[in-house]
Amino acid sequence: MVKWMEWVARAAGLNLLWILFVLCGFGFFGVFPATVALLMVTRDIRIGHNKGICTSFLAYYVENFVKANVYGYVMFVVNVALILLAMQSMSQFSLWLTVPILVVTILIFNLSLYLLPVFTYFKATFFNHLKLAAIISLSHPMVSFVLFSLVALLFGLIFYSQVLILFPVLFFFFMISVSGYFAMVILLPIFHKFKHAEENLASSSQVSKV
Fold it and tell me: Which residues have a Cβ under 8 Å from the Cβ of 140 and sit 6 or more positions away?
C-alpha cells in the first residue's frame, strides 16, 4: 500500500512538473523539453537511479532545451507536411501515387514516436538518433502499434472526449506522466538490448584490431 501511494504521488508530481515547465517555455517552446525531461526522470526511476525528481527534471529541461525543441519541431513540421500531402493526394492524385505517400507518412510518423525516447537514452548525433529510431521502429512492429495506440488514446482523450471535462484531475495529475511511464516500460528493454549489442560489437571490433 505504501509503495502504491508513493507511485501515485510520484506520477502526480511528475505530471504537475510537466505542465509547469511547458508553461515556463510559453507552451510552444516548453512542450518538447518538458517531455524529454519527464522521459529522462522516468528512465532514471525505472533503472534505479533515484535522484530528486524536481532537481533532475529542472536539470534535464535546461540541459536539453534547445536540442529537444530542434528534434521535436523538425519531426512536427515533417509530419504535418506529409499528413497534408497525404490528405491532398487522396482527393487529387492517382491511387498509384497516393499509396506510396500514405506508406511514407505512416513510416515517418511511426519513426517520430521513437525519436524523443531514443534521444533520452542514447548519446548520438541527430542523424544517428534518426537511424536508431528507424531501426527500432521497423524491427518491433507490435511495440510501434502499442505506442501508436497510446498516442491515439491521448489525442482522443484531449480533443474528442468528455472524460477530461468530467474528470480534469486526470490531465493535471496523471495523464502525461502515466503515458510516459508506460512508454518507457515498453521501450527500455529494447534500448538495453540495442545498447548491449552496440557494446559487444565495439568490443569485438577492438579485439579484431589487436
Answer: 190
